[in-house]
Amino acid sequence: MNKIFIFIFLYVSLSLNLFANPNIQARTAILIDYHSDEVLYELDPDTQIYPASMTKIMTAIVAFDLLKKNKLSLDDKFTISENAWRLSQAGYSSMFIMINDQVSVENLLKGIIIASGNDACVALAEGIAGSESNFADMMNEKAGEIGMTSTNFTNSSGINDPDNVSTARDIAIMSKYLIKNYPIFYELFAEKTFTWERTGGEPIKQGNRNPLLYKNVGVDGVKTGYLAVEKYSLASTMKKRDRRVIAVASGFNTKNLRSTESLKLLNWGFRNTNTFEISKKNETIFELNTWLGTSNKIKVSTKEDYYFTINKKDISHLNVSLEYNGPILAPVTKGAQIATMIVKNKDEIIKSLPLYAIEDLQKVNFFKSLITSLNYLIWGDV
Predict the structure, then answer these.
(1) Residue 368 has pLDDT above 60, yes or no
(2) Catalytic residue selected from 36, 81, 93, 116
(3) Is position 156 annotated as part of the catalytic site?
(4) Strands, sheet with 328-329, edge to edge from the N-terminal-most edge strand
């Protein structure tokens, strides 16, 4: 077994208080790295919560999914029911649509995402599924598909219902899914205003409910929430250069705490951790020596993109090693696992990644093989 060690030494001058726990003043919270999925901070992240308007993230996802599959168009229009209209008259956050209005899917989505309109949620749900109950079934099907194991949706808006529940961890999973799978539609979450040219009145201009959008610190979504039983909540994400982190927290006592503590958590993630790209899917990482092959090298890679996140204080202890039985004996079929890359922090293995041949390697013919073997016996490694 040949083992090749590649050592990474990065020396950073750091003060001890840089790594202090952020002590978020919420009932539950989680911070994850978008690329590596590493949990950077958690505070009872599996505690059941009432997700309130963070529910609307899934409402948008269901619509985005249909748009992506060309089963729905942004130009499609739905007729506003009395059921949807009544929510705009009940004191909830609203888009202020009117009964029998014909409203496009695009405007309803803006009313949901930017204005946090509960009336727009019901209108979209009824237009897509016939009823809000049927739409909630679609939401739950999607939640199960993407790994939200502790979530149950009963409505499209998140208005108070004891059975409409989730967790901070599940909301983070949902937020990442949104950003990863619908990057163009996700841009709606960064829009700061929406003007609805309503029927029978002056246009209504509303601002995005997400307070972090206005701070110009790299936050580009996701969604606020509030219920008297849950208090204030926020799913948020910050991007700096090629890195992104996602924070979800709930149970803040005030709006101000929701804003300041969420921003503190996002900044803490960037200050205290680094994320490294280990490999890109099907891109050559190493070329390994071969034996009796038509080429003396074979290229290897991973089948997925891989990243890992590490606390900055541990960077100087990082090393990567490559393990394989070498030289690689021909023939080799494309896609065969022929090596393993191991990432360690001190003596702890933090990633162990299988490496696959990204090309076929044929064996040389009998006579060339014989000559090569004889040369090796006479002259050694040739």
Answers:
(1) no
(2) 116
(3) no
(4) 2-7, 318-324, 337-345, 348-357, 297-301, 286-291, 328-329
Q: Quote the percentage of the chain above a pLDDT of 90.
A: 70
Whole-number Å distance between alpha carbons of 1 and 376: 19
CB 56 within 8 A of CB 41: no
Q: How many CB atoms lie within 10 A of CB 325?
A: 10
11 versus 347: the higher-pLDDT residue is 347
Q: Is 246 left (phi over 0), alpha (psi -120 to 50) or beta?
A: beta
**Residue 245 shares a structural domain with residue 324:** no
Whether residue 192 sits in one domain with residue 127: yes
Domain of residue 363, residue span: 2-9+278-379
Residue 163: CATH number of its domain: 3.40.710.10
Domain containing residue 316: CATH number:
2.60.410.10
pTM attached to this predicted model: 0.87
- Annotated catalytic residue 56: yes
Does 260 fall in a domain? no
Q: How confident is the model over 4-35, as pLDDT tens digits?
A: 333 433 333 333 334 468 899 999 999 999 99
* pLDDT tens by residue, 72-114: 999 999 999 999 999 877 778 999 999 999 999 999 999 999 9
- One-letter amino acid for residue 98 of the chain: M
Number of other residues whose CB lies within 10 A of the CB of residue 366: 8
Measured distance CA(360)–CA(209) in Å, rounded: 54
Catalytic residue, chosen from 56, 110, 231, 299, is 56
Number of domains composing the chain? 2
What pLDDT is attached to residue 354?
93
**320 and 239 inside one domain:** no
pLDDT, residue 359, reads 92
Q: Are residues 244 and 289 in the same domain?
A: no
Cα–Cα distance for residue pair 54/2, rounded to 1 Å: 51
